[in-house]
Amino acid sequence: MNQTDEELRKFTRLQVLVLSGNNLRGVEGSFLPRRLKFLELYDNFINDITTLVETTPKYLSHLGLGRNKLDDNSSLHLLAKSGNFLHLRSLDLSDNDIYDLLAILNKIKELPSLKSLQLEGNPCYLDGHYKLKTIHHIPKLLFLDNVEISRADRSVSETSLGDKDTKPQMIFYCHRIMGLRPPPKDKKNLQTIHLEIKLPLLERIVSSSENTENIIDNSHNQAVKKPSKNQKNADGKGSRKEKNSSKTSPYDKPDEFDPQLDKYNVSFKTEKLPWNNVMKFLPICIESPEGNDVLIRDTLRTCVKVNVVYIKAAHQSKAKGKKGNKAGEVKHTNKKTKTIESAPEKDIPKETILKRVTLYSFFCNLQSVNWNDESIDYLWMDHPKFGEDGLKMKCLKNLVYGEKSKKGKKKVNKDADSRNTQGTGATMSVPKIFTCHVGFGLKRS
């Protein structure tokens, strides 16, 4: 259906009308039944609401305009100025292209009965002070993005907003990886583990800003090999030899390192850590390139690939760095997030990589991160039931893992999990198979 007509007015007693998932470009308010109280227009192509608001039924309590084509120039100011929405209690504007947060808040704050507002999925939703600004501009709100506003949320002073707006940042968390087999013994070389995430929308901007030409994607240049007897069949089922063998090591995979291709590897990487049975990495903050907030918003709608990578490198030659710092040592000025601040390149000996192997890969189907959540977490295990997709979970950060001592008591791995400051109180056993806990969030005030 791509339009409405006056036939709708024949349903004089109709109070709920749902027209989601159609091809509507607009809705004539004069065609709607006069007793209508609930109008849902989710997932259409509406880009202007002028014809809807001018003669709309005056007793609407809910108006759903989520996932349409609305932006800052869609006449949203008419919602309050028309005087036809005096009873509107719930307004859904989620998943549109509204950029200016303060502008939209000023347009709708005069709606006298408004108690619930949804703006999640708009570029303005990425504002670091999104929650504070919304609550202070519309203090009568009870629900924001389907989450009840608490007293604690209201108690935050508006002065905490500061003078400057924070740039939108997407945060990648690796809460921990566990159960990874130790690498082969090699005292002569450095062996580290790190994670890489593929964010094509953001990586493309990084590449173009560096004026690189003929960018090569590693994934498209790897030769396609026929599956061996130990690899999975086309139907996804493992061979009998694979199922019965526990000696296969992920470190035995072919070396992927190519100096020429590595120059164009624009994946976002965590810090490199030596192997441990439980490993936890610093979060990565990823800013919107060139101030393009839409790219972060759209990235949170995609499927992201996560790689667990093993690197074997030759020991760095001893070089003199700045006083108080080892040569090539990266400074972390913020304990909570990984910063990109290091010693000058001339003082850092280049790393000589001897081998690179992607130990494991999996995918995370992302979605918008609610302001009430620090991150959306995903669990993946090296188990046939998981396949290639991570399982969406909640509060993986707060879990605490430990190993059993000789006396049978669980011993928390202090070296790897000491950064966890809010444990659940119960210590869980470390899985015997490879397990990865990651999360994706937005930087909020």
TrEMBL record:
Domain of life the protein comes from: Eukaryota
Keyword Repeat listed: yes
Stretches with biased composition (Polar residues): 213-222
Region feature Disordered, mapped onto this chain: 213-258
Keyword entries, A-Z: Leucine-rich repeat, Repeat
Presence of keyword Metal-binding: no
Transmembrane segments: none
Basic and acidic residues bias locations: 232-256
PROSITE patterns noted in UniProt: LRR
PANTHER family named among the record's database cross-references: LEUCINE-RICH REPEAT-CONTAINING PROTEIN 43 (PTHR45973:SF35), PROTEIN PHOSPHATASE 1 REGULATORY SUBUNIT SDS22-RELATED (PTHR45973)
Annotated function: Cilium-specific protein required for cilia structures.
Protein name, as recorded: Dynein axonemal assembly factor 1 homolog
Organism whose genome encodes this protein: Phaedon cochleariae (Mustard beetle)
